[in-house]
Structures are given as C-alpha cells and as structure tokens.
Design a protein that fits this description.
The complex is a heterodimer of chains A (399) and B (242). Chain A is 53% helix and 18% strand. Chain A folds into 2 domains: 161 residues, no CATH class; 162 residues, no CATH class. Chain A contains 13 helices and 12 strands. In chain A, strands 1, 3, 4, 5, 6, 7, 8, 9, 11 and 12 form a 10-stranded mixed sheet that branches. With 399 residues, chain A is of the alpha+beta class. With 242 residues, chain B is an alpha/beta fold. Chain B has a single domain, classed as P-loop containing nucleotide triphosphate hydrolases (Rossmann fold, 3-Layer(aba) Sandwich). In chain B, the strands form 2 sheets. Chain B has a 6-stranded mixed sheet. Chain B starts with 6 loop residues before the first strand and ends with a helix. Classes of the chains: A alpha+beta (399), B alpha/beta (242).
Chain lengths: 399, 242
C-alpha cells in the first residue's frame, strides 16, 4: 500500500522542512529550558559534591551557608574535630562578589579554605592546570568559567591574589564560578572593614563611656583589639570516618555544640527544595507555556495542511478510502513533523547550549521524555485536523 | 431485468427536509444503462442532476425507489446495501469536471491506489494501472506528477482511475466542461471506447452542447423526473466508420 503521508510529505518537502525547522527551534528552546533547570540542579549538587563534606556545621537556626547567612566562631573547628565520628574538618567562608577581569566585571563566589591541609573538605577536588594554594596569603585557584588564567591577578576587596591553579565545574548554586583563596584572607575580605570604617568604629568605641571609663584602664584597648580580630567563618565542613553514620555524628554536634548540622541529604534538600525552588517553578511555568504553544502551533500547522487537502480527502473518501487510512495519513504527518522538529530542536539545543552563560545540562533521559512528549503532543494536536477530515463529505468531490 | 450488469433505477425519489419545508428533488426517476453503453444525463440547473448523481454514486441515500447495480440491488425502498464505501470503491468509477488527481501521487499511483484500497497487492495494482494507462495512451507519463500533466492527460488518468477496479458503472460529472471541442469529443470517444472494452455502463452528466449529439440515448431530467430521448450518436457513428 502506498504511504499517502510519506508521498504527501515528499511532494511538499520544502514546506514540510521549513515548518519542521520552525517547530524544531521552538522545541530546541523548550529542551534548553529543561537543560537550564537540570544545570541549576547540577550546579547545586556539584557544589555539595565538590566540597567533599559529609556534614555542614552552621549557625544555629539557619539554613546556611548557601541558602542563608551563617556566622560561627572559627575556633569551633577544634570542638568539631573532637566530636565522635568526625575524621576531618575545615573552616570555610563563602562570599559572592564582583571581581574585575580586564575591563569586565565577573561575578564569582570567593571561598576561603585551609591552604595547608590538602585533604581538608572545601578545597577544589581537582585542577586542570597549575597547583593548589600552598601559601597562607594572596594565592588563588579559579574556576575556568571565571575567565582567569594562570598568573592572572584578581583583586578581591583591598588585596590582589595571583592565580596559581585552574579548576573546573566548581560553581556556586547560582552557577557563578568559584575562586578559592586562603581562609584568613577570605575572613578579612568578608568581615573586615575599610580603613575609614575602622577609624570611625574606633572613635565610636572611644566615645562610648562604657568602654572608656575613668579608673578602668585597658578596657578600651581590649575592646578595640577584639574588634580588629575576625574570628568568624560561615561554616565548618566535616568528613566522618568511613562506616560512621553522618546523622549520628551530626546529632552529637547539635546536642553538645549547640550548632545546626546538616548531612549531605539534608543539604541537598535545602539546595533543591528551597534555594532553587522558585527558579525551578519559574522554569516549569515556562516549559508548560512553551509546550502549550508548541502544541498549538503543531495543531495549527496540521489543521492548515489538512484544510488545504479537503478536496483530495473528499475524492479519497468518494473512491472508497477508509476513514482510518485518512486518519493514519494525518497522524503520520503530524508525527513525522514531530520527529523532524524534535531532531532539529535537539541539534539546536546541543549547539547553542554551551553558549549560555550558565550551565545547560541536556540529559539523554530528558531527550527521551521530550521525544515522547512531542510525539504525544503531535498526536493530540492532529485531533482537530482528523476531526475535520473525518467530517468531510464525499459528496464535496461531486460538487 | 435484475440480471443486467449495468445500472437500473426505478421510481427513485429523494426528499430533502421534512414537513412544510420539504423539497422533493427527485420525484420518481427511471433509468437503465447497459454495460458498454454511454448515456447522457442533461437538464437545467436545479432539475435534480446533482442529487441523482449523488444517489447513483451511493453518496446520499434515496428516500424511495429501487437501484440495481451490476445485477445486485443496492437500494430497495428503504433497504440499502450495508457498506456504501466498499460499493463506491469496487462498483462505481467517478470522473469529475476537474480531474481531481491526488497531487502527491504520480499518474501510475493515482490509478493503482484504487485497486490497492480494494485489497489488491501493490504489484497487481500497478500492473493493472499500467495496462489502463497504456489503453488510454498515457503510459509514457506514468511517472509524472499531476501538476506536470496537460489537462487532457490528467483527464485520461482520471478515466483510468475510474476504471481501475473494473466497475460496472462510471459516473462522469461534466467531464468535458473545461475542454475545447476537440478535446471534449476526444474524452467522450475515450469513454465510449473504454465502456465497450471494459463492459462498463457510463452516465455522463453534462450541459455541454458540443457533446450532447454524441450520445445515442439521453436522459433529460426536469423537475425531478427523467425523460428518455434518442440521441444522434454522432461520435459513435464516426468511430465505427473509422
């Protein structure tokens, strides 16, 4: 039996291909939106994976250090290290800031890490070039997405840092590339004030009678000294001994150190369920709208193509063609449009995905789901045209 | 007369609507066309030609009367054959004013589609189509798409399509309307020739004064009733003389 759909497509292949390209670009945008969502999820997971931690110890009653601000004393590290089940731990700070790169500003997340312990959690897992930070000050390891190269200098607040290592896929939950600097420098960058602010703070302290009382020498100096030091970090990352239940170690720290502790699973829930939840819903809304628009376009195209063949359909029915043959022709055309459109969309998304500023992750399972969805959408979209075709009176061929 | 392999209708009636608004389009049409015969069906606009053609083509159901096609009753005062689609496919060939070929099938496949729909194999269908195109002298255009065929070639292919399932009757609706005299007479000549060759009854609905003299018998329809008249049969006479 002749494939009526195939012959019709071949007969008007130019129109069919152009229509498929239009639909394919729309599908490409839809797939890219899905890829953006997957990229966000992956960024969030990568941040957790790359930290190499089992536990995130943060300020009590906060969802820190990524979803909410958290500030704890850095000497709590010793207590954490002494907690049962904890194998290693390290202080970390996180600060999202703009840094200059040439004439452009780049948004990065500056992470302060222990420069001396190569196995400490929070350090970049691997480098693609250069070496890890080995000095206590003014060295940096940058993610390649930041655009910095080995030997570049990065100005963060008042200080310059020389890039000694390049890493890859070390990004914040928002997709900003990370720059790792020594912890002390990061604490200074995050918490220390500029010179004018320090001067003003000292004057305010001196003017406070509570700190500058007659007959109490040394109080003012002590207070000013305490203000000059910076004992805060955002979080302590800890790794538990192999075989140790992270929740057990976490409960001990919660109970005895009065801190908030999150395990890997809990932190992932925070990242996905709270930090990027709104963005996810936003993208989901866009996906739904794009899917509806795509379906409407397919329906319109198939409907228009069918209307252009009413006379032929009437003739086909008059000469005894079964309705199911005509339905099959329309359905096959809709599905063929979907297959070609999807292929164009997938290729388009693969090509333009890397050009996006944030990570676009196109997963095969999404491609499969997308393909099935497009096929279902095309099948449904052809229903209006099928209804019209079935309703065509063979008498129309006679006139 | 039930053994007639052409078409025979007796007292065929068709009423549209009901009650006060009812219109009797056909008020008792009698007609008989033998295999191999070509008759003309003429009449002014609104006389019921199109309604009769649709009833003959099993597209609409008559209100009353009797129709026998190829020796088999297909309608008898309310009783009708069950599968009208199959009846149209297997027993009735259609030729229209415009050829209405399927634009995305070449000439051969336009003809072969009909036996394929009837369940013949692709090979048999194409073989049969090729024979018909050969008989109609358009076999050299078998691979051409309809848009590449001339008007006359398209009409020949349309006739071949109408004959593809060897139907006992062909209904031709104004088949010569867009053609000049020479081509119009050529088409009628082909229909006559094919009717004899394939033992098919052909009813040609027409207004075309050029071809009316070619019919040996004419049914004139007026106010929903037919009157049989003797035609001149000029073309047939000429063809026989040739």
């Amino acid at each position: 039996m002749i494939s009526l759909a195939g012959r019709d497509i071949l007969h008007g292949w130019g129109k069919f291909v152009l229509t498929s390209v239009g639909l394919g670009l729309l599908i490409g945008v839809t797939l890219t939106m899905g890829g953006v969502y997957r990229g966000m999820v992956d960024d969030a997971k990568v941040l957790l994976d790359n930290s190499g931690a089992d536990l995130w110890i943060v300020q009590k009653d906060t969802l820190g250090p990524y979803a909410e601000p958290s500030s704890i004393y850095d000497d709590l590290l010793r207590s954490v290290l002494a907690s049962p089940g904890v194998e290693s731990a390290a202080n970390v700070t996180y600060l999202t800031t703009q840094v200059r790169r040439g004439r452009e500003d780049t948004r990065v997340m500056v992470a302060g890490i222990d420069p001396h312990d190569p196995a400490a959690p929070g350090r970049p897992g691997y480098l693609t070039a250069g070496r890890h930070i080995s000095r206590g000050h003014y060295e940096a390891v940058a993610d390649e997405a930041s655009g910095f190269r080995l030997g570049d200098e990065i100005r963060i607040r008042r200080n310059l840092y020389r890039v000694v290592g390049i890493t890859k896929r070390m990004v914040s939950s928002g997709g900003d590339p990370m720059v790792f600097i020594p912890l002390k420098d990061a604490q200074e960058a995050q918490f220390m004030k500029d010179n004018d602010a320090i001067l003003q703070q000292r004057r305010r302290t001196e003017a406070n009678p509570a700190f500058n009382r007659p007959g109490a020498p040394g109080v003012l100096e002590g207070v000013i000294a305490s203000q000059s030091a910076n004992p805060y970090v955002n979080s302590v990352l800890a790794r538990v001994h192999p075989g140790t239940d992270p929740e057990l170690a976490a409960s001990h720290i919660r109970r005895w150190l009065r801190l908030e502790v999150y395990t890997r699973e809990q932190m992932e829930d925070i990242m996905l369920g709270k930090l990027i939840a709104t963005s996810s819903k936003q993208i989901a809304m866009l996906l739904v709208i794009l899917a509806v628009v795509s379906a409407a376009i397919v329906a319109f195209i198939i409907y228009t193509l069918t209307l252009g063949k009413i006379r032929e359909i009437a003739v086909l029915k008059l000469i005894g063609t079964r309705n199911r043959t005509i339905i099959g022709m329309i359905l096959q055309q809709a599905l063929a449009l979907g297959v070609l459109g999807f292929a164009i969309g997938e290729i388009s998304a693969t090509f333009w995905g890397p050009a996006f500023p944030k990570y676009v992750l196109l997963e095969p399972r999404d491609a499969f789901t997308g393909f099935v969805s497009v096929m279902v959408m095309c099948a449904f979209a052809s229903l209006i045209a099928i209804r019209v075709a079935v309703g065509v009176d063979p008498a129309e061929a006679i006139g | 007369m039930d053994s007639l392999k052409g078409i025979r209708i007796e007292g065929l009636r068709k009423r549209y609507g009901a009650g006060d608004t009812a219109v009797d389009a056909l008020k008792g049409v009698d007609m008989e066309v033998a295999p191999g015969e070509v008759v003309g069906l003429i009449g002014p606009s609104g006389s019921g030609k199109s309604t009769l053609l649709k009833c003959l083509g099993a597209v609409i159901e008559p209100t009353g009367g009797r129709m026998i096609l190829g020796g088999e009753p297909i309608y008898d005062d309310g009783w009708k054959i069950r599968d009208l689609r199959a009846l149209r496919r297997d027993s009735i060939g259609f030729v229209f004013q415009a050829p209405y070929l399927i634009p995305f099938l070449n000439a051969l496949d336009n003809v072969a589609l009909i036996p394929m729909l009837a369940g013949f194999s692709d090979g048999d269908s194409r073989r049969r189509a090729a024979e018909l195109l050969e008989a109609l002298d358009v076999s050299h255009r078998a691979d051409a798409m309809p848009s590449r065929l001339s008007g006359g070639e398209q009409q020949r292919v349309a006739i071949a399509r109408a004959l593809a399932n060897r139907p006992p009757v062909i209904l031709a609706d104004e088949p010569t309307a867009p053609l000049d005299s020479e081509r119009a007479l050529s088409v009628i000549g082909i229909l006559n020739s094919m009717a004899r060759q394939y033992e098919t009854a052909v009813i040609v609905v027409t207004h075309d004064e050029k071809i009316i003299p070619t019919f040996r018998r004419i049914y004139r329809i007026r106010d929903g009733r037919t009157v049989e008249e003797a035609g001149e049969g000029r073309l047939v006479q000429n063809m026989m003389e040739n």
